[in-house]
Amino acid sequence: MSKLSILLVDDHPVVREGYRRLLESQPGYEIVAEADDAMTAYQAYKKAQPDVVIMDLSLPGAGGLEAVRHIKQWDKHARILVFTMHANTAFALKAFEAGAMGYITKSSDASELIRAVAIVARGGRALSDDIAHAVAAERLASGRLPTDELSPRETEILRLVASGRTTEEIADLLNLSSKTVQNYHYQIKSKIGARTDAHLVWLAMAAGLVSANGPVERA
User: Fold this and answer.
1) Which helix (H) or strand (E) holds 177?
2) Is the model's pLDDT at 70 over the cut of 50?
3) In this protein, which residues make up the domain named Response regulatory (predicted)?
4) How would you classify residue 53: left for phi > 0, otherwise alpha for psi between -120 and 50, otherwise beta?
């Protein structure tokens, strides 16, 4: 059975060593490359092509968000987990918009990081408990949500999009044409003010439309 290859990006060598030991203590996990800044991370990704990238945001020079964006430009299928000290939803949203598939804070238990790596490796989205709670708090504080304006059909299509379904899959499930699904997708983004598909997913998460048992999971 092949091992899960990981690129570890953090600008502190001692910190990287600690996380390397933690991750490689798990059966089937292997650190195949390390980097300490955005450019080195991009170069290491191209060379090693790991299954998962664990990315800090606080890097010297161009930060982790730029590294995420750059890697995703080169490989749209890259699976990147942000692991950072920034415990706020604004950074988390920007990370998802840049192309990250998970966001875990460094105040989380080690078990959360291990589980998040597994979630992202299989194509899911992961949030640590503190960020998930912050999203829920924002939802309560804001009162009415943008998604409240959606029709039942639009809500279901949003849920399917946020769950990672393709246009063709949604069309088959709802007995619609692909063109109709694409039109709904555009209308939903316009109606709830989503700038990108990543923002669309974030709003679906905030509204609780995606189950923790689906592709968007609590770590």
Assistant:
1) none
2) yes
3) 5-121
4) beta
Q: Which of 147, 141, 142, 108 shows the shortest CA–CA distance to 127? A: 108
The secondary structure element, H or E, covering residue 200 is helix 197-206
Q: What is the mean pLDDT of the chain?
A: 85
Buried b (16+ CB within 10 A) or exposed e, 1-40: eeebbbbbbbbeeeebeebbeebeeeeebebbbbbbbbeb
Q: Is the pTM of this model over 0.90?
A: no
The single-letter DSSP state of residue 23 is H
Task: Give the tokens for residue 114.
Answer: 């291990």
Q: How buried is residue 103: exposed, middle or buried, by Cβ count under 10 Å (0-12/13-18/19+)?
A: buried
Q: Where are the domains of the chain?
A: 4-137, 144-208
Q: Which of the two residues, 213 and 211, has the higher pLDDT score?
A: 211
Q: Which fold has domain 4-137?
A: Rossmann fold (3.40.50)
Is the domain 144-208 a CATH 3.90.1750.20 member?
no
Torsion 183-187-188-193 (CA) sign: positive
